[in-house]
Amino acid sequence: MDTYVYQVGGKNYINLTNRCNNACDFCIRQNKVGIPGFSLWLEKEPEAGEVIAQLDAAGRGDVVFCGYGEPTLRLDVLKEVAAYVKSYGGKVRVNTNGLANREYGRDVVPELKGRIDTLSISLNAVTAAEYTALCHPAQGEAAYQAMLDFAREATR
């Protein structure tokens, strides 16, 4: 059975995908199949109901969307599960590379409002060239500015 919900430090982490639009040199995807105690490689990407079932079995609570891939690549599932967590009073954090707007070709930040309490965006470098060399974004050097723009929009 795939691991969609796993616990670390008393928090529920949600793993939605293996896919990522970056290939960062430092990422565990480069040399491991998961974290100690959990294999995070998914045979299939989950539907929201499958994640919710595992979350209920784990005891609900606050969640962090952070798995083996970029959670915003499953934006509809992320939004549905986040809304469920908010419905029972849980807090929601998303660990992201900040490339969702570029990926979807639109500003997705308004879609996250009311569903996400905290966005943790991996900046990783101070210039586009350094970012590209370290993170190898599928979107090329333009990804750096897209990530910064996403961060600015998210703070509004």
Please, could you describe this protein's structure?
- By secondary structure, this protein is an alpha/beta fold.
- The chain has 6 helices and 7 strands, in the order ββββαβαβααβαα.
Short description:
35% of the residues lie in helices and 15% in strands.
Number of helices: 6
Query: Largest sheet, described in full?
Result: 5 strands, mixed
Order of helices and strands: EEEEHEHEHHEHH
Outline the low-pLDDT stretches: none
Task: Report how far apart the termini are.
Answer: 39 Å
Average pLDDT figure: 93
Strand content: 15-25%
Query: What's the count of strands?
Result: 7
What is the molecular shape?
globular
Structure class: alpha/beta
Radius of gyration, Cα only, in angstroms? 15 Å
Physical arrangement of strands within the biggest beta sheet = 1-2-5-6-7
Helix content: 25-40%
What labels describe this entry?
156 residues, two-stranded antiparallel ribbon, alpha/beta, 6 helices, 7 strands
Spell out the blueprint of helices and strands.
Blueprint: E1 5-8, E2 11-14, E3 34-35, E4 38-39, H1 48-58, E5 63-65, H2 75-87, E6 92-96, H3 100-104, H4 109-112, E7 118-121, H5 128-135, H6 142-155
Parallel strand pairs: 2-5, 5-6, 6-7
Antiparallel strand pairs: 1-2, 3-4
Helix pairs in contact: 1-2
